[in-house]
Amino acid sequence: MIDREAVRANAKYLRHVRPIDPEEIHEYIDGTPHPAVVRETLREEAYDLGLRERTDGTFVPVSDAPAPQPGWEPETFPEPYAFALEDLLVERYGANWHRGESGDRLRETIRRLKEDYYRQNPVEYDDVAALGYAIYHLPDYYAAIGYVLDDLAERDHLPRTLRVLDVGAGTGGPALGLHDYLPEDAVVDYHAVEPSASADVLERLLGETSRNFRTTIHRETAEAFEPEREFDLVLFANVLSELDEPEAVAARYLDAVADDGSFVALAPADRNTSTQLRAVERALAPPDSGTSVYAPTLRLWPGRAPSDRGWSFDRRPEIAAPAFQRRLDDAGTADDGAGSDAGDDGTAAADATDPDAAGTEHSPRTPGDGTFRNETVQFSYAILRPDGERRVDVVADPDRHAEMAEMERHVTNRIDLLAVKLSRDLTDDPDANPLFKVGDGSEAVEHYAVSTARDPLNEALLTADYGDVLTFENVLCLWNGDEGAYNLVVDDETYVEWFA
């Protein structure tokens, strides 16, 4: 066995002198181990030593600078990952995996998964379900995680040396997105917790990541796994809805987050999974607990917490369907069966005035009709921080701002308030007045800002990003009895600007 401490000592001595070369330092270690053994030991110790491996096989210190925002907006799913998944499909079913009995089985599996998620039925991931899940969800989950990481990177909260725990890692969409989001000189100690057959797909896809993205898969349930160290980033991506006790499990993993680390929860945008994520968020970060909601649903009133339904989601540019989705979709037949897209990508939420509009009616499918192409990037998320930091450090002023918890007092009045923009435009009709969900962290019922007159003085409502804090001056408060919500009417008498 190699003297690991001797390897560490040599690396610490040389790190500030010259690149650390296993071909050199193996001579200074008892037993003169092979350079390849020294190299593997350095890889295993890279996170703790703050070293990254270069293409020439030497090791150099990782920059102390935090990871920057890379301008994340993927248009396609990277080919190396797509090819790796197709290799798995070909190995399992042959070159024509998308046709015949295997294609029918995969399409039926994807339909069943979509329906089970919408109906909140238990989901079991055997090897077929894992492949079906990967086909349908790898691209959109890959894209979504980068947009969430932007919230951390913009405030320098994403270190280049990063220890990650991915709970319920599935087939790896978020893991691959994290890998591609980070700069090439980052060093990641990545741990995945995944007990199902999805771990086999995950393992294959992680084989496409770089040498400085060190991966370990723990084939245990989230309930059974015991974190033995602290992590800079704990990720629950699209798994909370599959846990019997999501709040209790998530609370245990929150304790594994480093003092300056982040807990990130991600969920599909449909009503059930999105509102469940908010319930977990609220349980983990009650008022005055020390744990803050970093983003997006900021608490703008100290000591307050929201108690509304909490359905909030972001929508980003589509990601093109990769070849494996197109092949499966195009190979379908008109009598291939019925499908349901209800709630799968949050489209039920598009009309905020009728959030339960999405149905589950079955209709015949025709070849290439898009049933098995998932290009929509729409998701709910929460970021919590043990250190109490928030994406925007702002609190409302009771002498100036109306509180949403007391909005009943202001109906038919014009008021000033501070609010977070919590949706994109929720209307489908281009001729309708743009409608946005907003919140201030005290609301008991939904609040929507309605733009009835676009003006240079209020267009910040239209152009602000999801999660931005806005100040409203002279906005008209009305009660919408049909929807059981408050409408904040932004007209030509209203002034809206970003909080600075």
Shape: globular
- Portion in helices: 25-40%
Radius of gyration: 25 Å
* Count of helix runs: 12
Number of domains as seen in the coordinates? 3
Pick out the low-confidence regions: 334-364
- Biggest sheet statistics: 8 strands, mixed
Question: Ends: how far apart?
Answer: 58 Å
| CATH class label of the largest domain | Alpha Beta
The CATH fourth-level homologous superfamily of the largest domain: Vaccinia Virus protein VP39
How many DSSP E strands?
A: 18
What is the H/E string? HHHEEHHHEHEHEEHEHEEHEEEEEEHEEE
List the helices and strands and how they pair.
Blueprint lengths: L3 H11 L7 H4 L9 H15 L1 E3 L5 E3 L17 H15 L6 H20 L7 H27 L7 E7 L5 H9 L5 E7 L4 H9 L6 E6 L12 E7 L8 H9 L2 E12 L2 H14 L7 E4 L18 E3 L6 H8 L7 E2 L23 E2 L12 E9 L28 E8 L13 E5 L7 E5 L8 H4 L5 E12 L4 E6 L4 E4 L2
Model description:
The strands form four sheets. Strands 3, 4, 5, 6, 7, 8, 9 and 12 form an eight-stranded mixed β-sheet that branches. The protein starts with a helix and ends with a strand. It contains twelve helices and 18 strands. Helix 6 runs parallel beside helix 7 (173-181). By secondary structure, the chain is α/β, with parallel strands linked by helices. Helices cover 29% and strands 21% of the residues. The chain folds into three domains: 4-61; 79-317 and 377-385, Vaccinia Virus protein VP39 (Rossmann fold, 3-Layer(aba) Sandwich); 404-498, OB fold (Dihydrolipoamide Acetyltransferase, E2P) (Beta Barrel).
